[in-house]
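Hi P.,

Sorry for the delay on this. The queue was packed all week, but I finally got your sequence through. Input first:
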Amino acid sequence: MKRAIVVAVFWGMSAACTKQGFLSAPEADPLVTAQVGSFKADTHFLLEPTGDAEDLLGRAVHVSSAGGWTIADERAPGCQVRVKRTSADYEKSYRIGLGDMTSMSGGYMEFLKLEARYGRSVEAEMKIHNLETLTADAEGDCGEVIVKSVRIGTGERRLMRKAEGTAKGRVGKGPVGIEGGREALTDAEDKIKWSTPQAYAFTYEQPAHRKVFAIDTDIPGSLRDGQSFALRFTSAVDAYLVIYYLEENGEGAVLFPDAGLPVPMTEAGKTLVLPPPGQTPLQAQLRDPTIPERGTVVVYAFAERSDFDRFRPAALTSSSDALAYVAALTQSLSTIPISRWDRHTVMIEITPNPKRSEEAKP
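Then the structure:
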């Protein structure tokens, strides 16, 4: 039944919460960061501020091929950091889109649920009173890319949902389908205010030449109701994949691996097509053939078979629920070098098919 669902995808990257797995930060638009205090284009913002400012310094940063940034939950063993403090007292306000922010307070799982429902229609309005900058003088094996500095201050942040029309409906025809929709409203989805100095942004440092594990994905950005489609992946090296989907309200299930393909792998220099030949193709299907919908497909790639075996769904949870797997995987990934995995999320808009819409009329 999981083939007969509305599958949608969103390009974005974020991770989970403080000590439980990862802190994430977005790749901020240079046009935005250039206007925020002394920020530079390599400054990235945390949706949830953290009081562990010094502890962030020197941590390894995973840079995905999709442009997202994920900070490991602790420094690598042997990494030593000396901290330099610099006063930088100023106040600034700015706005940034959801796709350029990190996870909700509940972690990567909550962030994905928000994106699955609202897509790019959520923005953050922020007012920051910056107080100081902490810079790391790191020694030892800290990682290929590390947190170089953090910005500390007080402030407030409101998530605002922009009007997107009055699309409402039910996504998916399988057992996971749930009522959801996009309402033509502009309101506050989430508010946070912090009055004690906390880290809310960071910069990174990386060597001029470094080896990066990354895969390429080819997933359609839009489909019509009833249209069949496939997912395509390529990689310079062998890569082992885990793929799951989220419905518009955030619920979903694992797509691959499955009984027909227990080890999805793209061989070096070749293209992997999913579902493979002989299996039932994926198909975009609307609950209401007259109302457009969307969802999210998330792809994890592992450079080593041992990591895939360790983090595949069956190894982490007995449930086929995608959210249960997201929660388990996000925390578990903090135990391996972030250079050994890659992640992509992609959004597909599903639009009505005039023929099917006409047939559905009473």
